[in-house]
Every structure is written in C-alpha cells, then in structure tokens.
C-alpha cells in the first residue's frame, strides 16, 4: 500500500555519550541518519517523508541530504511522542489523509532490511489497526526483586522486543499520541499509545539485526558488520 514516513531524529543520544547526537555519528562513510533515510527514499510506494529535528540542530545543514527536495522537516519536541506528532502535522500539510498509513522509524535504526519493510507493508495492508516489526525474546528472562535477586523466570514464549517501523493510520496514531501525552502515560513507542487507546497492534517478526543504536557497543557491532 502507499505509505508516509516520519523519522523522529530530535533526540540527544544521552546513553551514547558521544560528542553529538548519535544519528549524526558515522557508519561506513555516511551518518546513521543518512543510512536510515536511504532505506525509504527510493521505495516505489513512498508518498512523502518527514524528519523531525531538534530546534537547534547544527548538524543537519551539513548533510548532503539537507537539500533533497523529497525530505520535509518538522521541529521535534522534548518527548519522542512530541517529535512524532510534529511530523504527523507536516504530513497533513503535505496532503496526507486521516486513513493513510504512516510508518514511524527511529533515526537511530539504520540497518532496516528492504524485505522486512515490504513484509510489514504487505502483512498490514488490510489490517484494521496496524502493527510493528518485532523480535521474539531469545534469552531466558528473569523478574528481579528490589534486592537484585531473581523472583521468578518469565514465560519467554509470549515476550517480544518492539522494533520499528511501526505502522498505523494517521488519524488514529495522532489521536492516540495526543491522548497518551495529555494523560501523562509513558509512551516509548507508537504502539504503546495505540495500546493505551485500547487497540492491539499486530506483531510482525523481523530481523534481529535491525537494531537501534543506543550504546557505544551497538555502533561498534554494526560497524564491524557493515565492513563484511
Ligand atoms: N527522539 C526524538 N525526539 C525526542 C526523543 C527521541 O525524535 N524527544 C528520537 C531519537 O532521535 C531516536 C528515536 O527517537 O531516533 C529513538 O529514541 P532513543 O533511542 O531514546 O534516542 P535518544 O532519546 O536520542 O537517546 P537517549 O534516550 O539515550 O538520550
Ligand atoms: Mg530517548
């Protein structure tokens, strides 16, 4: 199906402890953000793409893609949900309809495979709610007590890690994010806002190497794979 994209890229990357936000760190000759954008820009079903940037962002104008007419900009906010909402606003201005599909994908997740993206789109094309790429838990999981000791082993077979892209309809995504923000509930991804609104997003198994760069060792891992 045709789809729109929002790339939230307004975070500071505090856990990365680098000299700049992690989306502007280099990976194989390009910034992480440029790799992420490349995963979408040539897709035949792409209707439009918005990147949400921090209000003060000295790094974006230095990128070659800053002049790319296919990329629109929004000003992100203090929470990820604010950044995504700002992106949705710009999409509406571009002519996106309330029923249109929007994919939200982390700027810091540069290794999305085209077959994962296409499977997400194909699986959800007629879905009433939408869903997300996710990976089943691999390790044995423990619930910890305050004393740092195991209280119990959790049933791994029902636990998934939520990845992106996350794919929802523009109108319901906006409404869910706004409700979640005004209610003060923590939404660390788009699906959790939809869940708060009572929906059950579909989990679509994706590749584990579509990882989000969060800590320095994540970038080291990806740099090693990139070369081989
Ligand atoms: N993001 C955003 N606006 C925010 C916070 C996060 O657009 N207010 C984006 C980040 O740029 C990133 C994605 O959301 O691409 C996932 O967030 P995360 O991995 O938490 O990135 P940061 O918030 O930048 O990192 P940290 O939490 O370590 O500070
Ligand atoms: Mg964060």
From TrEMBL:
<keyword id="KW-0414">Isoprene biosynthesis</keyword>
<feature type="site" description="Transition state stabilizer">
    <location>
        <position position="22"/>
    </location>
</feature>
<feature type="site" description="Transition state stabilizer">
    <location>
        <position position="15"/>
    </location>
</feature>
<dbReference type="GO" id="GO:0050518">
    <property type="term" value="F:2-C-methyl-D-erythritol 4-phosphate cytidylyltransferase activity"/>
</dbReference>
<dbReference type="InterPro" id="IPR018294">
    <property type="entry name" value="ISPD_synthase_CS"/>
</dbReference>
<dbReference type="InterPro" id="IPR050088">
    <property type="entry name" value="IspD/TarI_cytidylyltransf_bact"/>
</dbReference>
<comment type="function">
    <text>Catalyzes the formation of 4-diphosphocytidyl-2-C-methyl-D-erythritol from CTP and 2-C-methyl-D-erythritol 4-phosphate (MEP).</text>
</comment>
<dbReference type="InterPro" id="IPR034683">
    <property type="entry name" value="IspD/TarI"/>
</dbReference>
<dbReference type="InterPro" id="IPR001228">
    <property type="entry name" value="IspD"/>
</dbReference>
<protein>
    <recommendedName>
        <fullName>2-C-methyl-D-erythritol 4-phosphate cytidylyltransferase</fullName>
        <ecNumber>2.7.7.60</ecNumber>
    </recommendedName>
</protein>
<keyword id="KW-0808">Transferase</keyword>
<comment type="similarity">
    <text>Belongs to the IspD/TarI cytidylyltransferase family. IspD subfamily.</text>
</comment>
<dbReference type="InterPro" id="IPR029044">
    <property type="entry name" value="Nucleotide-diphossugar_trans"/>
</dbReference>
<keyword id="KW-0548">Nucleotidyltransferase</keyword>
<feature type="site" description="Positions MEP for the nucleophilic attack">
    <location>
        <position position="156"/>
    </location>
</feature>
<feature type="site" description="Positions MEP for the nucleophilic attack">
    <location>
        <position position="212"/>
    </location>
</feature>
<dbReference type="GO" id="GO:0019288">
    <property type="term" value="P:isopentenyl diphosphate biosynthetic process, methylerythritol 4-phosphate pathway"/>
</dbReference>
<dbReference type="Pfam" id="PF01128">
    <property type="entry name" value="IspD"/>
</dbReference>
<comment type="pathway">
    <text>Isoprenoid biosynthesis; isopentenyl diphosphate biosynthesis via DXP pathway; isopentenyl diphosphate from 1-deoxy-D-xylulose 5-phosphate: step 2/6.</text>
</comment>
